């Protein structure tokens, strides 16, 4: 194969980059010193992981509540709560399956959430 044909093939390959697809991994150790098993040979550490905030321990979210509340043996009462904060307790733990989204070069993986399977 001559060099012009080789160059043409290389240019053609660049027109069709490898599609990025989601995968899953298993938490070996949770943050802050995270390790996630991608497959039988690859274990991702903190330097290759970016976490969605909502999967982290004590993630705090501000919420507003409005509605009806009923206390024992009393009629419904209206309530409104502004600037309420809630902390999540369902953080990542060892053995959890997580959803991973790699960058195009697969050097960095975004942990977007816990995986749940219905089998």
Walk me through this protein's architecture.
This protein has 119 residues and is mostly beta strands. It has one helix at residues 3-15; strands at residues 23-29, 35-37, 43-45, 49-51, 60-69, 77-87, 97-102, 109-114. The strands form two sheets. A six-stranded mixed sheet has the order 3-2-1-7-8-4, with no helix packed on it. A two-stranded antiparallel sheet has the order 5-6. The chain is elongated, with a radius of gyration of 23 Å.
Q: Notable features of this structure?
A:
single chain, 119 residues, mainly beta, two-stranded antiparallel sheet, 1 helix, 11% helix
Number of strands: 8
Report the major sheet. 6 strands, mixed
CA-to-CA gap between the ends? 51 Å
Taken from the alpha-carbon principal axes, the silhouette is elongated
SSE succession:
HEEEEEEEE
Seen as an oligomer or otherwise, the chain set is: single chain
Tell me briefly what this model is.
The protein is mainly β and 119 residues long. 11% of the residues lie in helices and 41% in strands.
What order do the helices and strands come in, and which of them pair?
Elements: H1 3-15, E1 23-29, E2 35-37, E3 43-45, E4 49-51, E5 60-69, E6 77-87, E7 97-102, E8 109-114
């Amino acid at each position: 194969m001559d060099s012009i044909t080789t160059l043409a093939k290389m240019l053609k390959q660049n027109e069709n980059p490898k599609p990025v697809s989601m995968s899953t991994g298993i938490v070996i150790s949770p943050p802050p010193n995270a390790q996630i098993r991608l497959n039988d040979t690859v274990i991702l550490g903190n330097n290759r992981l970016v976490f969605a905030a909502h999967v982290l321990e004590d993630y705090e979210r501000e919420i507003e509540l409005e509605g009806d509340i009923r206390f024992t043996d009393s009629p419904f009462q209206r309530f409104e709560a502004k600037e309420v904060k809630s902390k999540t307790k369902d953080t990542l733990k060892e053995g959890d399956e997580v959803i991973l989204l790699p960058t195009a070069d697969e050097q960095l993986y975004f942990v977007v959430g816990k995986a749940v399977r219905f089998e």
